[in-house]
Amino acid sequence: MQPLTLLATLKQRLQVLLEDGNTVTLTLRYLSGIRQWSIDIEYKDFVLHGERLCNAYNFLQQYSLILPFGLNVTVSDGREPLLLNDFESGRVQLSLLSATEVQTIRTYYTNFTGKQMSKWDRVYSIIITPPSKTVITIESPSKVLATPEPPLSVKFTVKRNTLSSANKATVTLSNLGESIRNQIVKDRHTFSNYWKIIIKGGYKGNLSTLFLGNITESYSVKENTEWVTTIEAFDGIYAIKNGYTSLTVPGNTSIENLVQLVLRDMPYISRVVIGEIETKPTERSVSYEGPPLEVIEEATGIEPYIDNGVLYVLNKDEIPVEEIHILESEDLIETPKKRETLITVNAIFQPQIQVGDKCKITSKESRLNGIYKVIGISHDVDILGESGGKATTALELSSSTGFTKVKG
Q: For residue 26, what are the domain limits?
């Protein structure tokens, strides 16, 4: 890796000699109005113009099959190039990658199916359905951009777990067109209005549902020259806020049937997955009243949870699907850690993993290798226009002597 020397000037041009004896010309411009760096690249017949510079292992990863070099952009605080003096101060370092280093990075970002999982391959889709039923879709590549510059950027954080509290997602979009911004405005206090949101993410050709829930608040503000739209959403919050159960069931009603009856009091919850219930039905009629999740816990002795619009009533060692995900050393950002009874794992973006799935860890920290149940997921994704960004997945795992696949 060859560090390049850059100054705090609005425009600068470098000619760099490559290993093969050819020269690449780099022209960098600082756009003070929107606080970003752009770059032009000329190499033989290859020309790239006005690309927004961003934090990346290989900024030219999408061209790695046709270019014998790459560019590494490292930002000391993990964010993006923003300031005129970023290079001179050392906050940002631009370095030339050799052909060997480019291949190493390509290999690093290949998953077990052989599909390339580099930052350039990440895709997303955000589908919003307000009460008007007019579906709004924001996806990559974006079709709702107001102007070619500055580019649309998307950041979202999704947190899901097996607790009875609602899962949460926060989405930040920059530079949406005005008509789209005006359609996704929601006041926090309008609990009775259901705004469905589905967030999907993954790699080209394979999108997974990361979140399904209800928007609780959405607004746009202008920050300098950019419009920034913020969306907050919760999974199951509508059922928690608006659902209420009041019923009397006859004697000998099965616990499974009771749960199905309570499900009717939970709006926008599509179905229920029920595990092995040890509680037996009573011979006499029983009355229940209160929030649906509390009624289910009282009747079953199991703390239920909602995930992606589905109600789960499962024991600790029960899993909804038999599929197992394998995380190898190259998938992990750091070695797993044990925190009391849980294992925590930080990995490169793993959109295919769902709450309740089985996950096999094979890391260099071999004492923690094994098969676990996923009880918590946090996705942190940052996509800047077409240039990628950062995306990670943090997992909370629980161990067991054996897992049981449930019906449903």
A: 2-108
CATH of the domain at 350: 2.40.30
pTM: 0.70
The pLDDT, as a whole number, for residue 384 is 67
In a domain, 363, yes or no: yes
Count the domains in the chain.
Answer: 2
Query: Of 108, 136, 160, at which residue does a domain stop?
Result: 108
330 within some domain: yes
* In a domain? residue 190: no
- CB neighbour list of residue 150: distance below 8 Å, 6 or more residues apart: 34, 36, 52, 174, 175, 225, 226
What is the reported pLDDT for 268? 93
* Residue ranges in the chain modelled with pLDDT below 50: 111-120, 142-151, 386-387
Mark which of 108, 136, 155 sits at the end of a domain.
108
